[in-house]
Amino acid sequence: DVKVTQSSRYLVKRTGEKVFLECVQDMDHENMFWYRQDPGLGLRLIYFSYDVKMKEKGDIPEGYSVSREKKERFSLILESASTNQTSMYLCASTGSGHPQETQYFGPGTRLLVL
Amino acid sequence: SQQGEEDPQALSIQEGENATMNCSYKTSINNLQWYRQNSGRGLVHLILIRSNEREKHSGRLRVTLDTSKKSSSLLITASRAADTASYFCATLPRGGSEKLVFGKGTKLTVNP
């Protein structure tokens, strides 16, 4: 079974802090994604990566950056957390050749920025 | 921009009844997928239907796709309390940047 893990289930940070959200997948998937999920807005794509050291902006990249130094790990960085970044963050991955077939999701990180 | 829109936003039924959720989208697609999300958890893939398919089954799930109407439906037969979750459709637009676009979801409650 594909397993996608996220470093924290719950996280509380203060405004202005630098926040790292880590995602690791164990299926040698090329493609990895970061979404945020907010009530009434559904899932919105922040960033994605089709390969190591490669990244592409999604629909709402402002205020975020990412890092993909190793194939299995995709990190989401909030350079200076703000209260409007309080949200549920979901990481997903898919295999090569079919980047938009089945997406495998992690359990999510619920981030609260005070 | 939001591609898939689920309808209804919320649905409450009794155990044993069938649940039907609908998804409409705006542009041509390569495939349409349905996902389930239990409260506070990640999404789990349920079924994928390609643009040249009209119907697909998986266990108690039946998905239909009508590309002329740009709509899909997910039917869960003989529902169980464990089916209580939010259900999302996701579409892969044709000729685009190959990013899945998720709808806002239908919250299904199955009462025992």
Q: What does this protein look like?
A:
The complex is a heterodimer of chains A (about 110) and B (about 110). Chain A is mainly β. Chain A has no helices and eleven strands. In chain A, strands 2, 4, 5, 6, 9, 10 and 11 form a seven-stranded mixed beta sheet that branches. Chain A is globular. Chain B has no helices and eleven strands. In chain B, strands 2, 4, 5, 9, 10 and 11 form a six-stranded mixed beta sheet that branches. The mean pLDDT of chain B is about 90. Classes of the chains: A mainly beta (about 110), B mainly beta (about 110). The interface between A and B is medium-sized, with 23 and 22 residues.
Mean pLDDT of chain A: 92
Q: Could you tell me the number of beta strands of chain B?
A: 11
Which outline of chain B best applies? globular
Strand-residue proportion of chain B = over 45%
Separate helix tally of chain B: 0
- Rg value of chain A: 13 Å
Number of helices of chain A: 0
Output the radius of gyration of chain B.
Answer: 13 Å
Described by its quaternary structure, the protein is heterodimer
Span of the ends, CA to CA of chain B = 37 Å
Low-confidence stretches of chain B: none
Low-confidence stretches of chain A: none
Helix content of chain B: under 10%
What is the largest interface, and how many residues per chain? A-B, 23 and 22 residues
Q: H/E series of chain B, N to C?
A: EEEEEEEEEEE
Structural class by sheet pairing and helices of chain B: mainly beta
The dominant shape of chain A is globular
- Summarize the main sheet of chain B: 6 strands, mixed
Mean pLDDT of chain B: 91
**Helix/strand-derived class of chain A?**
mainly beta
